[in-house]
Amino acid sequence: MAERSPLDRAREARIEGRTDEALRLAIGLLEADASQLGAALFLARVLIHEGHGMVASDAANRLVDAFVRRGDLPQAVVAAKTAGEGGENALGLLETIAEVFGQDSARLGDVAPAPPPLPSADEPPAGLAKLKGEVLFAKAEAALQGYLDGEDPVPADAPVPKLPLFAGLDADELGELLAAFALRDLAGGEVLVTEGEEGTEAYVVANGVLHVERATGEGEDPTFLAALGPGALFGEMALVSDAPRAASVVADEVATVLVVGRDDLERLAKVTPAIGQQLAKFCRGRMIANLLRHSSILRSVSGPDREALFHRFEARHLAAGESLVEEGSEGQGLFLLASGAVEVSGKDAEGDDLRITELGPGDVVGEISLVLRRPANATVRALTPTVALFLGRDEFQDAIREHPTLLGELYETATQRDEETRTVVAQEAMDVGDIVLL
To answer: In the chain, how many domains are there?
Structure first.
């Protein structure tokens, strides 16, 4: 395991209530290297929260520009919110950020955010170990003043990256969105998102690392799915659907995230429809990207043709208990599950409901009736609020003419599903017969 930097240890000490130790570590880091903007922002946040905001608010104000120059929107927003807590005009600072990262900005380019300077592993100077209380606060203010007295080596007009979602909004719209975010600090090991729970918030990682995991069998360790570092946006599907969380998100270390709630977004979308429209567009793109990783149906179509196929689908939001397919009915179309879960059930020999299986993201529903051209042999209902991409019968016929490989993949799926359904029902009938014979 890599050695943690003084800043990582400072954040941990602060969240555990060891403020003096946290200050010593961050002061030592900033005094040794004025380019450690993370240490400067950390000191500004601590000082403002502890009522020593005079120099700290000026530093936070300056840090907004520093992070913008480096293309780091999340940290720039943290600095703006921090400056606001110190009495500065936070809304004005957020508007400045939005002007640079919004869609009309001349500074947007195909660049990546500038990487932060490598953290030092050195211990703070021995002299800091004896300082505490007001003397230590004064030392922290002096370190921030030293930062303020320096020059920023990054040009003020440096290009910044086009960030998903944010770059699709103009400056006014983006400013309103950024104002809706709040700051949340997480302890190492803290669970931010819990699999299966209703989601009402979306997040952007400002600093720290989190990971995504999904539960496996009872008594088994969760499956690791992804790591989320600074700049990662996640949880956005909760803002456009009621589907439960598909996985958990846990902080690997002390982290800071920007968080926005569904209620705030709905309020904003009513006043500024472009925010809701851009969010829906972003979520659709993320949903499709996720389906490409999980759906063999979509992977059967070559890359250049997928975009045309996507445009044939329409998003449908299904409430828990709502039917997608009814046994015995003619299929109305094809459903590609994007989030949530559905249950497939049939009738046993006695006419009672029989649970066959459960399907989730990446699975397809309705293919048996469409491909095999006969009534559906099972009922499919949403177990939870579910989002699916729907392709109507007429659109389906056009799609398979344009993409013959799609029909081949669906035929294989349909015949396999049909056989599995018949096997489950037949096994149930046999089991009932055995019980009667006994």
So the answer is: 3
- Residues 186 and 167: their CA atoms lie apart, in Å, by 27
Q: Tell me the residue range of the domain where 412 lies.
A: 303-437
- Number of C-beta neighbours around residue 148 at 10 A: 14
Task: Residue 301: name the closest of 380, 387, 403, 230 by CA.
Answer: 403
Distance between CA atoms of 45 and 206, rounded to whole angstroms? 14
DSSP string, 331-386: P-EEEEEEES-EEEEEE-TTS-EEEEEEE-TT-EESHHHHHHTS--SSEEEESS-E
Q: Are 141 and 55 in contact (CB under 8 A)?
A: yes
Instruction: Quick: pLDDT tens for 87-106.
Output: 999 999 999 999 999 999 99
Q: In this predicted model, what pLDDT tens digit does every residue of 131-176 receive, in sequence order?
A: 888 999 999 999 999 999 999 999 999 999 999 999 999 999 999 9
**What CATH number does residue 231 fall under?**
2.60.120.10
The answer for residues whose C-beta is within 8 angstroms of residue 272's C-beta and 6 or more apart is 172, 173, 176
User: Which helix (H) or strand (E) segment is 233 a member of?
Assistant: strand 233-234
| Whole-number Å distance between alpha carbons of 112 and 160 | 7
In one-letter notation, the amino acid at residue 322 is E
Is 389 domain-assigned? yes
